[in-house]
Amino acid sequence: MGLQPPLPAKRLLAKELKIRNRTISVTSSTEIRTLTTPQELFAAAAEEVVRAAKEAVAQRGRFTIALSGGSTPKSLFNLLATNARASLPWDKMFFFWSDERHVPPTDPDSNYRMADEAMLSKIPVAAANIFRVPAENPDAAAAAQAYDQTLQKFFQSKPGEFPRFDLILLGLGPDGHTASLFPETAALQEKSRLVVANWVEKFKTNRITFTAPLLNAARSVAFLVSGTDKAPALHAVLEDESAPAERYPAKLVRLTDGKLIWFLDKAAASELSTATG
Questions:
Q1: Which of 9, 44, 178, 186 could bridge to 87 as Cys pair (CB 3.0-4.6 Å)?
Q2: What is the pLDDT of residues 122-137, one digit of tens each?
Q3: Quick one: CATH architecture of 12-229+239-245+252-264?
Q4: How far apart are CA 74 and CA 126, in angstroms?
């Protein structure tokens, strides 16, 4: 992504955010932040991670974050590892994954492996603070159940209660999926479990994913969306009231009592009426 030589996080982020940064408020709990370039998107998202982490540690003594896979968060992770290494309370940060491929952690497709290579291996965080999905288990349902139990134990959840992450990072696929909640898949109907194995027919494989109720219990969710290939789906999710959630699962993300932020670059936002003018 062509990072500049390391600078103190605040200095770098402030510099990036001065450049044509537009914030469009949608509701009191949802906002869209449209940035001109992907680099500005990464900087704005990094600033939000730093802000949320410091606020959570100050208020609750720890920061819980669920990471996502894909090229956009990878660039964010690189930026955090390079320019926020000295400013984040890494010893009080706890890392989870909102979804994972059904592959071992050493597999090139592993979301854990991507995050480890881009960020976790470069920062002062204890191994005990990292909770990856045990996706090497040949039984995807058992892996999902084990991760469900890991979350319940960590958050000390009561029966029927959904854990409350401080921040969940999500992406948006060109087909409208988020996490591994793909269009017209069984996981879209899940109401009680935290994590499920979701069969995705077009890939002929299971994906392990947070459920919509768990996503919606978060204090904050940040979508990172970059590129013109995402523009039609983004328009459907944000502006087309007739587009069904069964077809565009990202529509299911409606926080119960939290803040939803969409970080977009100009290309991704190109079909939004609110991004014109």
A1: 9
A2: 999 999 999 999 999 9
A3: 3-Layer(aba) Sandwich (3.40)
A4: 20
